[in-house]
Amino acid sequence: MKHLYLIVFLLFFAVGFGQSSQNQGDIEGFSMYPNPVTNGKVYITTANNAPKEIFVYDVFGTLILKTTILGKELSLNDMDAGVYVLRVFEKG
Fold this sequence. Notes:
Elements: H1 2-18, E1 31-33, E2 41-45, E3 52-58, E4 63-69, E5 73-75, E6 84-90
């Protein structure tokens, strides 16, 4: 029975202190459209509308494109059709 209490206590301790209450990965007001891209352009908007650093990866994790946009329009005309992952950074 003591082992059960120890396991419950350690589980509670791990869950309580293992998760941060701050959400540091989200960009406030983030929106990306259209998805899927139809005309070779994707629009990325945020609440701050600050310059954004964009990384585009293929499904294997290979970096395909690294660019910075000042507005909200990202041109993807030179890319082949496929599935990609976008990583967006704004203000660090």
